[in-house]
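step 4 of 6: structure.
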Amino acid sequence: DAGITQSPRHKVTETGTPVTLRCHQTENHRYMYWYRQDPGHGLRLIHYSYGVKDTDKGEVSDGYSVSRSKTEDFLLTLESATSSQTSVYFCAISESWVGDLRNEQFFGPGTRLTVL
Amino acid sequence: GNSVTQMEGPVTLSEEAFLTINCTYTATGYPSLFWYVQYPGEGLQLLLKATKADDKGSNKGFEATYRKETTSFHLEKGSVQVSDSAVYFCALNSNTGGFKTIFGAGTRLFVKA
């Protein structure tokens, strides 16, 4: 199994509070991704990183920011959590860029976030 | 834009039954196609993939054939087991229309003993 951990695994928070989710990898993969999983939507990309300090937005980036100060860590921050951000969040990593059609991603175990 | 459509679930089968989960896609260019599986409480893991038309991906008794003429990548297994109970996601990678992986909504499979 690819070495990907996410923390925390479960979190309950209140509307308006800041939340940071952490993804840590031991595979030294260049590319890292944050997705959210919601019923009926599959996985949707929030943000991704193509190197240390290099990040870009995905399709559902509003209300989220990310940072990557080290190869192994990719942080997702909800500056002011809202109930619509209640979801399961998955981190993924890959050796190659998704524009390389052979690209496959390895996923962490997920973080279940509830915003009350 | 690119999209993936897969059959709605849940799909409930008895052990040893034949499984088909339908997946169709819309994409410009020549995408790669994937099936990922998510077991309860876990992240997704790659089940199989195909990178060009007429390729067949296979793994753990599952298989899917990349059909460009019908834009499909249906997942099949001849005899399912209780341990196959999971959510299955069809996905595509394309280098046109934006560089990202597009996932289908997922199909939950329940296999009864």
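step 5 of 6: annotate
 - Chain A has a mean pLDDT of 93.
 - The first strand of chain A starts at residue 4 and ends at 7.
step 6 of 6: archive
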